[in-house]
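Let's study today's protein:

:::
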Amino acid sequence: MTPLEHVFTETFPAPRERVFRALTDESELCAWFAEHVEVQPQPGGEFRFWGRHTYCAPNRASAGQKVVRIEPPTVLVFSWPIDGCASEVTLELAEGPQDASGAPTTVLKGRHYFPEAPAVARPLDLVDDLWRMAVSNLRAHLAGIAVCRADFSHPVPHLRQSVLIDRPRDRVFDALLDPAALDQWIATKAVVEPHVGGRYSYGWQYEVRGRQVEGGPTKILELVEDTCLVTDWPDWRGNPEMPSQRVMWLLESIGPRTRVFVIQSPFERTADLSDYPQGWAHFLGRLKQHCEAASST
């Protein structure tokens, strides 16, 4: 028997009572977390969540989560059977420091513990990704912006996002290949060799579980001027045993404007989408802002 523990800490720009309500109110949970939710806010009460946005719980009969402990607005503990394995989630909320504008923040400390780890590939990554999805969408929900929930019922997990930019297609495509432009909206010291097989790097560097990782793409796989850019995408955690993915940028003219699609695939399982959907939505917004600001200068 091998136990598994995943811990995380997140800070949200909202009062503690507001965050706790988003974690325990049925209608709010349905808005950012699960398709269906039933909550009885008392020890031993139901804390069921299921549907296409929930891993391993497509229907109510498969949802056996229960409240273990609840102390508004500071503590929520609930059980969560996953893949036939018992687990317990502890969420603790504390008042955080005021932000730059003097508004309150909340620090959430989470712990997800399995006495026996699920018998799946990369179980720690699975749990980590599930919480990255949840935390990303909770943050979006609290900010009043669109959430990007994964669909666990889809047979072919993939990510597809788009944005409409008020600039011609050639100008937008330049922002994908010009290192100086990339540094304005996605990269740090970008490197681009604009041909198939050429180096393509955002210059990202970070640490994952004590390992230094050079993240993001490394080379160009396909290139069609003003239309398509495809790069590789090695495992973001730096696991050399994980197969590389592909990230495709497609540009389509809509009159004088440009529709940009970003498509990332393949994913071995839906949970591996992690917080990529919100991440790409953020960068597409940055791309739009950069291109449209350039048109006004």
Helices lie at 16-24, 26-32, 123-143, 169-177, 179-185, 276-295. The domain at 159-295 is CATH 3.30.530.20 (Alpha-D-Glucose-1,6-Bisphosphate; Chain A, domain 4). The mean pLDDT is 96. The chain has two domains: 4-143, 159-295.
